Amino acid sequence: MGTKKYSESSFWRKVKKYWKVAGKKVMDPAFTLYYAARDPETPLWAKAQIWGALGYFVWPLDAIPDFTPVVGYTDDLGVLVAAVAVVAAHIKPEHKRKAKAKLKEWFDF
User: Fold this and answer.
1) pLDDT tens digit sequence for 1-51
2) Quick check: 50 and 37 in contact, CB under 8 A?
3) In angstroms, rounded to a whole number, what is the distance separating the alpha carbons of residues 9 and 38?
4) Other CB atoms closer than 10 Å to residue 71's CB: what's the count?
5) CB–CB of 99/80 below 8 Å?
6) Residue 87 contacts residue 50 (beta carbons within 8 Å)
7) In the 8-state DSSP scheme, what is residue 89?
8) Residue 75: which H helix or E strand, with range?
């Protein structure tokens, strides 16, 4: 898993395919982590945590399969929220602002 399973293209492929099913609750931390990982000022150790969480999000073999009704993204949400907690000191207001703008773009059309 981890950084070997994560790539920017795999992230956007999954987002484009499943954003409606995953919902805002999952996509908010995913987008926040994505923008934090792209920030050159985010420390390498924090990026490793983020890439691991985003790698889990895009990995097709979750603990709870994503296609499982109602609970399919529960494990993804848990991993993403845990990563946000671990790297919280390195999540800047601009990362949150970009994530909120992306949520608005995708969900409030």
Assistant:
1) 344 556 788 888 888 888 888 889 999 999 999 999 999 999 999 999 999
2) yes
3) 13
4) 11
5) no
6) yes
7) G
8) helix 74-86
Residue 16 carries which side chain, given as an amino acid letter? K
CA angle, 45 as apex, 100 and 49 as ends, to 5°?
50
Rg over alpha carbons for the chain, rounded to the nearest Å, is: 13
Report d(CA 18, CA 24) in Å as an integer.
11
Confidence of residue 65 (pLDDT cuts 50, 70, 90): low
Q: How many domains does the chain contain in total?
A: 1
> Is residue 33 within 8 Å of 76, Cβ to Cβ?
no
- pTM tops 0.70: yes
67, 50 Cβ separation under 8 angstroms? no
Q: What is the distance between the alpha carbons of residues 24 and 45, in angstroms, rounded to a whole number? A: 27
The CB-side HSE value for 41 (13 A sphere, CA atoms) comes to: 6
**In terms of residue numbers, what domain contains 46?**
2-107
Angle at 43 between CA 40 and CA 27, to 5 degrees: 75
